[in-house]
């Protein structure tokens, strides 16, 4: 499994923006499709909301192949 840390400067980032910002999805539309296809989990729970808020400390898994840990940029 590929593991990455994504640093954000804001209080939260929406799931679609996180997937695009991290490079997992090339476009926001592709990020939406990933959520619709049921391959995105937030802290172990299936994500069905495309604009779900993701906060520092949260862990996002994509298709059990990529793990993104969200951190607050120092």
TrEMBL record:
SUPFAM superfamilies: Alpha-L RNA-binding motif. This is S4 domain protein. The keyword RNA-binding applies. InterPro entries: S4_RNA-bd_sf (IPR036986). The keyword Coiled coil does not apply. GO terms for molecular function: RNA binding. Keywords: RNA-binding. It comes from the Bacteria. It comes from Phascolarctobacterium succinatutens YIT 12067.
């Amino acid at each position: 499994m590929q593991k990455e840390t994504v640093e954000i400067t804001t209080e939260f980032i929406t799931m679609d923006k996180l997937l695009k910002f991290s490079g997992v999805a090339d476009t926001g539309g592709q990020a939406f499709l990933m959520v619709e296809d049921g391959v995105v989990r937030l802290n172990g729970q299936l994500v069905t909301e495309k604009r779900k808020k993701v906060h520092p400390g949260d862990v996002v898994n994509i298709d059990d192949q990529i793990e993104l840990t969200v951190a607050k940029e120092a």
